[in-house]
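Page 37, top half.
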Amino acid sequence: MVGEGAFVAEGARVFGSTILPGAVIEPGAVITDSLIGTRARVGERSILTGTVIGDGAVIGADNELRDGARVWCDARIPAAALRFSSDR
């Protein structure tokens, strides 16, 4: 489900997830079984699986969060700061 005013960029993929109003999913991001909060932003090429991203949080480009990761409201994660696995 994609909420009113949310934006999913061309090339981003969303599967079984809820994107709340005003959220932005940038190109190349892959969101699976996750909840993206109001006004949150997921950066280019980031991979989120089974995560909850709080309202207003920003996930920079090239991050990978999986398996129950939670990001607080208004938190900022810089580009390429988190990687769940090193096999890719």
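Page 37, bottom half:
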Amino acid sequence: MSHSDSQATQTLADDAKQRNEAAAQAASAQKRKKLFSIFGGVVAIAAIGYGTYWYLIGSRYVETDNAYTATEIATVTPAVNGIVSAVDVVDTQAVKKGQVLVRIDDADARLAVDQAAADLDRTERKVKGFFANDAGLAAQVLAREADQKRAGAQLLSAQADLKRAEIDLQRREALAKSGSVSGEELSNARTALLTAQANQKAAEAAEVQSRANIKATQGAQKASTVLTANTTVDDNPEVVLARAKLDQAKLDLERTVLRAPVDGVIARRQVQVGQRVQSGAALLSVVPLQQMHVDANFKEGQLTKVRIGQPVTMKADLYGGSVEYHGVVTGLSGGTGSAFAVIPAQNATGNWIKVVQRLPVRISLDPKELAQRPLSVGLSMVVEIDTRGQMQVGDAQPKSAQNSDTKAAAL
């Protein structure tokens, strides 16, 4: 092979190599372009999916697992002191409203009722005596008025006798000068005058005494009337007071039997037979499971759109994720847990660190669902609030605009 042929062969090989490299570069560029297109499509799809999720779910629902069941627990306390004679319930026992829970020895209470009944009877008799005395005093006033009239008549009679005695004495003194009347007759006339004068004074004193007797009797009648004025035996203040004491004694007797204030389950029983209990001491509690609600502690940033009346979906750890409860937001707490803590945070200090606060949200439960699957106090719940939903008045369950269907379609 000549030198020129060798050079030509080398040139052809270089050209082929360059063409292969150019083709490889073009194929690589095409592949990168395709990969970038695929990546851009994936990013676009992810953005659209996230935007759809945020519009349909993320911006609409707020969720927390910091939620627990609660209810208004009824504490049973005695209103009277005494020794416990019987305890008819145990912890975890279901009871109905009005069912007997605890009995306190009622011997003292029964004695108090008997004593109050006797006091009432005695008071009624005493008040009847007041009315009888008032009537007697009224009769005495009439008698004293009659005595005064008689004394007045006697005074007039004594005055007439005195006048007649004075006239007789004057006649006899005139006749004595002519000797027509003896000295003895004149002496008798003078004596008769003195007697008439004495009788008049006695009649005046009797008349004064009769007026005094009337005033005394009228005063006694007024004093008696004050005790009975505008009343009868039944509504006299003393009888009313005695009857109130009897009613109080009967009430204390009824309070020796402690009954369940609501339907529920017995919890925290602390009373035993033979124990002496004081008024107001907590003996046991009744948990009304049918009135259960949920306290959900949401972060403050989650409550922007939360309003009273919004529908809620809940799941209990007790039954797992397959069981859902429905409810409605009924209220938001007036303060965070740290604000009501026994030792509140001192945020005015120099070493302050911001901590996201949680605010309790009260959520009611559907009574029908609660009756089918009862809950106990303090159970963990997962709560999700539909911030766009509305609770229609009169509905047993919250109605949201295609709540479940929208979530299923979005997912």
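Margin note: Residues 162 and 196 are 5 Å apart (CA to CA).
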